[in-house]
Specification:
five-stranded mixed beta sheet, YceD, about 180 residues, DUF177 domain-containing protein, alpha+beta, two-stranded antiparallel ribbon, 3 helices, about 35% strand
């Protein structure tokens, strides 16, 4: 299955001095990505790339992503539009040289395997968009109602001679002590 937003480029067509290009999703691609990410809509998605060939078929992709998405506020459940921008870098690596490390370094550059001398810049942009989406989006200015989301302070320890709060497993603990 092809990605919803695919912009393939042959690695062999990237000059030694590098290549600059901009990709943009059309309406159908934005609609398909919105379904994929569970959003009401993606109004616009574009990414400007600087591609630099590396050693042994590697390609460094530096990207500048811009998107306008419609999200649903987790507080009010109202839809709202949000503009997002992100810069990122990733390294495309030939699939035969790609190694999935078990000890992933969160600070290391993402490496993406590719096959048949073709990298997909559209899918990379879509993945980067998915990473910057807020899992709990809030419409600007929305606030939780008074008292919601506040944690009550734990009850104070009972004074000597006072009965403390009921503990659900106190009877079981007493039984265990009696059998020991």
């Amino acid at each position: 299955m092809d990605a919803e937003f695919s912009r393939r480029i042959a690695v062999g067509r990237i000059a030694l001095s590098g290549k600059d290009l901009t990709i943009e999703a059309n309406q159908d691609e934005c609609a398909a990505l919105a379904v994929r990410f569970g959003l009401p809509a993606i109004r616009a998605l574009s990414c400007r790339y600087r591609l630099t060939p590396g050693r042994q078929g590697e390609v460094l992709a530096e990207g500048w992503l811009a998107a306008r998405v419609e999200q649903v506020c987790v507080i009010t459940t109202d839809p709202f539009e949000d503009a997002m921008t992100e810069t990122f870098a990733a390294r495309f690596v030939p699939a035969e040289r790609f190694r999935e490390d078990e000890d992933l370094d969160p600070e290391a550059m993402d490496e993406i395997p590719y096959e048949r001398d073709t990298i997909d810049l559209g899918e990379l942009a879509a993945e980067e968009l998915s990473l910057i989406l807020d899992p709990y989006p809030r419409r600007p200015g929305s606030v939780l109602p008074e008292g919601v989301g506040q944690v009550d302070a734990p009850p104070a320890a009972p004074e000597e001679g006072e009965e403390g709060p009921r503990r659900p497993f106190a009877a079981l603990a007493a039984l265990k002590k009696a059998t020991d």
